[in-house]
Amino acid sequence: MTETGPPPGADGPEVVALLRTMLGFDTTNWGRGRSRGETPLARWVVGQLRQVGFEPLLLARPDAPERANVVLRVPGTEPDLPGLLVHAHLDVVPAEAADWSVDPFAGVLADGYVWGRGASDMKDMAAMVLATLRHWGRTGERPRRDVVVAFVADEEDRGELGAEWLVDAHPDLFAGLGAAVGESGGEFRAVRTADAGAGTPAVRCYAVSAGERGTMHLRLTATGRAGHASRPGADNPVVVLLDALHRLAHHRWPVHLAPVVRAQLSTLAAALDVEVDLDEDAGVEAALERLGEAADPARWTSRASTTPTVLEAGYKVNVIPGSASAEVDVRCPPGYDEELLAALPGLLGEGVEHTFTSFQRPVEAPVDGPWFDAIRAAVLRADPEAVVVPTCMAGGTDAKAFARLGLQCYGFAPLGEDPDGRRASGVHGVDERVPVASLLWGAAVLADLMTTT
Ligand SMILES: [Zn+2]
Q1: Residue 216 pairs with which residues in a beta bridge?
Q2: Which residues neighbour 105 within 8 Å (Cβ) at sequence distance 6 or greater?
Q3: Which cofactor does it need (predicted)?
Q4: Where in the chain is the domain with CATH 3.40.630.10?
Q5: Which of 5, 158, 248, 293 is the most buried (most CB within 10 A)?
Q6: Taking the CB of residue 384, how many other CB atoms lie within 10 A of it?
Q7: Ligand 1 center to residue 239 CA distance, Å?
Q8: Ligand 1 mean position to 375 CA, how many Å?
């Protein structure tokens, strides 16, 4: 690979320089409270904002000063309008440098990409937002609505020191806001149907997240009588637990199309000129198959899932243990929480106790209201042929925390088409990178949305 361009901080498109510098801060979040570097990066962000005349807040939970967040409110020219929150997390997942082609914490610019852990999850959007704020600071230009920007810690674990904590401890910072824009969504994709021939022209799609499945972590415990394995009884907790896990894992949850998923499938079907019938499970299955990759992640978000992931039981092969336990990852489409909770005891059966170790309800925002329209309009101004597709995330982001404030939460971290077909890649994997062309397009679109909406 050829390394090109100026080093971080040098002249050139500011968003690229900002991103490269931010990638140089190792802000690894290992989870379970272990992390490094969030406060040094937060302080650097504060410095970048002070340089252009803003006075942002640096906020950390008192027992975790090394896990700081930055919040800034920029008053709009029409303060009576509901405001917009724009949020981005500063932490990243770990990177094994030995597996990478480049140093993951050096902000390398090469081959038309910016490389590094966090390049597309999500220091790219953090850099775009920072570039917009610095532009406003330098020029005196101001947004139409109040815009609150939050650069947060701890998204890659549980947000307890970042978004969740800010929402609990400082809800006043978000007063008067109507919607939030954050992680996930807004990336260009050329899509075709699953059975399209090689010459079929692609549709220019941008998926904008308007919902997330709920994330519920379930702990199961079966208890019985410990004893000699040569004389098994019916109450072996390992067997009781396995039976319950078998029922859960193999349960085919019925299709439940939340409005956002229905809108996703019908928008895609219209754009790709495919007839679909979304009123019956079989029709939804057929639509998912026909739409192929374009319909990702609706194959997961159109129903709940209960996935066993952790097992603990036993200590010696000839001893029946007194208890056995397991953990199950439960995901729930918007609007399906109550049905799922009602069905769980029947699936678990007798003899298995359950508790939730975490419980985050699904979130969903309207796809036929003014905020989604504003996002779509910003994309269309930059790409008149765009098809903006609402989508629901299979997993979750900080939107779950900010939705607790009553905000309509959207995932929109725009990335445009790279003329040579490069794509952002490597999220949570190796060689994470974002195409420079995509980043520049995204920065312009996000600035447009933040300024004119
Ligand atoms: Zn992320």
Answers
A1: 330, 359
A2: 23, 24, 25, 26, 95, 97, 116, 117
A3: Zn(2+)
A4: 14-184+397-452
A5: 248
A6: 8
A7: 39
A8: 20
